[in-house]
Amino acid sequence: MKQLNYHLDLITPAFCGGAAPEAEAEIRASAIRGQLRWWIRALGGFARLAGKPIEEQAALVFGKAGAASPLVVRVAPLPGFPPLVSQARANADDLRAGPGTALGYALFPLRSAPRPDRRGPRLPEPDERRRGVMWPKPMRFALQLLWHGPAEMAGDIHALASVFGHLGGLGFRSRRGFGALAFAPDSPTPPLALADALAAFSPTGQPPVVVCRLGTAAGDWRGATESLLSWLRSWRQHGQMSRRWDARANTWLQTSAEQRAALRSQPGFRYARRDHNEGLDAQGARASYPDP
To answer: CA nearest 10: which of 126, 134, 94?
Structure first.
């Protein structure tokens, strides 16, 4: 058996809900198991098992019907740090993530602003849009992995945990920068460097992993997250950059030419526009679109 013990820090607010996500946040071993399984798939499987289908590789680590998992995942609080269950609740307004902001873009399901077209079911009141959040600072917890599988794969499990700790997150909107993790400096099992951890995975069909260093001060979660979201937003928004909804005035407001030019100069915009226009072409609607 191989035992791996890590200490992880939460570096951004984590909406990691348990059985009642509206009432409390909870760091659970089952959620981390799910994240580890996701990373195996996202990275194309282990290089050691190249040639085996991803489903078989996942079954070797996480088990399947009739076969127990050789990987045991445990989490525990650390002395001097908060417990792993929090009754704190927050919505976008509490995090100063209003419409038109990068944080508001990521947390739009928790915003209290009404829908522009006023259609659909009744919108929740602001308090109903709150979810349990894990955000006492500092927040650190212990993650223990017990590997009962083949000894030669213990290094692969360590690489998997290292990728998760470097790039992973927990909870609602974790792929938008919330619930982000980092290894504590005093982690009992030192993680692999990210490049070394990624080398344990198969390059066949593996999407590139892009890591950018954000020019923000250490510990500035808001600045770092906003920078990341601004970059991400440029890949996903296209025509919406031309205007924004003003809930107070109950109308659309056009952005200035300078703002549009700045937004459209972002690196992902030309790809988002191409994707958008190809969709219009498939519908035969390009000619009717006012800003192709």
So the answer is: 134
The closest alpha carbon to 32, from 164, 136, 132, 155, belongs to 164
Q: Whole-model pTM?
A: 0.81
pLDDT per residue rounded down to tens, the chain (292 residues): 999 999 999 999 999 987 888 889 999 999 999 999 999 999 999 999 988 999 999 999 999 888 899 999 999 999 999 999 998 999 998 998 887 788 988 998 888 755 555 555 555 555 568 899 998 788 999 999 999 999 999 999 999 999 999 999 999 999 899 999 999 999 999 999 998 999 999 875 555 566 666 666 667 888 888 888 887 877 776 555 677 777 678 888 888 888 778 777 777 777 777 877 888 888 887 666 555 5
CA distance 278 to 292: 11
Q: Is the Cβ–Cβ distance between 89 and 132 less than 8 Å? A: yes
Instruction: List b or e across 126-152, with b for residues whose CB sees 16 or more CB atoms inside 10 angstroms.
Output: eeebbbbbbbeeebbbbbbbebebeee
Structure token digits, residue 88? 């704190």
- CB contact at 8 A, 206 and 198: no
- Identify the residue whose tokens are 């001060």: 217
